[in-house]
Design brief:
The protein is mostly helical. Helix content is 66%, strand content 0%. The longest helix is centred in the first third of the chain and has 32 residues.
Amino acid sequence: MSTATVAPPVPGRAPARPWNAALYERLRAWNYYRSADFGSRRDLRLDLLRGFCIFAMVVDHFGGDSWLYAITGGNRFYVSAAEGFIFISGFVMGQAYRAKRDRSGLPAAMAEALRRARTLYVATVVLTLIFSVLYLYTDIALWTGRDFGLGIDSPLEIAVAAVTLHYTYHGTDILAMYTLLLLVAPLGLLLLSVGEWYWVLGVSWLWWLAYQFYPEEASIPWYIRHGENFPVAAWQVLFVSGHVLGFYREALGKRLAQFRRLRVFLVSLGVAVTLALISLAWGAESGVQFGFFDIDPNVLNESFFKVPLRPWRLVAFMSVAIVAYTTATYLWSPIRRLIGWLMLPLGQAALYSYIVHFFLILLVYNLAPSFALLPWELSEAVFTPILQIAVVLLLWVLVRRRVLFGIIPN
């Protein structure tokens, strides 16, 4: 009578326990790499995260009291949706132009970048002129308010400054930055294709560093009126870094596989949670502060100053980005079921969503007085989030229906 042979345990590995086997398999089933979406040509995790950035920007661009700011940061946290939107855009473009180069050659990829720059240039100029005309020749309520001003009195000067990208209206400054970066993208593609990535990253980070100390001298190629919130010299570092990482994504993925991902995730999560606690401590209306966060608020605000992208703000962005991307990877299935229906369409039509949301906010601002005629009264804490959710859903409907997709770039 033969006896069954029991395989010896693998050294250094504990045998699977019955009580956690089911949970382990469920967690594995939620993984992005085990989902049907993994075979898609697009990385849907990036689309979902960029869609969340669009959602956050729409919400944050409304003033008022809203519980949604606890989710989006309200543009008061130490990292905002703008950083994620710009970085992901660069990353996705890096992937796309690498694929275009591999399929059709480097000249075709360079030409595609220039065509994209042309599209963004037209969108920037047209939007700038539309909002400038609305400011000059109408009395409608504008997003930034009329106290913001244009800084230019002559309509002809406005037109010339807009066409030469020396002037933008509030909100179109990001589009102007994209346009300028894509104009030099062909040179970047050439350097990346021959392996000279360190020149691309080196120039980008040195340019960012110079702006931290000498902002006027580092304002290359020129000063853009109303572009103070997103100076090209500082914010290009997110786009360019994302572009390089996207271009070399496959090679980087193999190298990063050697690191302990759980350890990196836990460190990033710790940084993100610490920043959230600091934000809550200093933002408390009662003035309550945690004793172990004995920091001068002026030093704190300067260390995370958004406009020049201070170093600690980049650290905050990196930690939040790692946590968000890792979470989307390992909890993909439940996240997609919960919010994928909303975030994925917005993220896949990111440029369209960004442009259209300005007009939706303009519409709401001018309809707001009509809400006062309703037979019931709502507090600001109730009314504002309802309005924000309504605008997000309206934007989602426009994207799903592909309204004006042939006119508004995507």
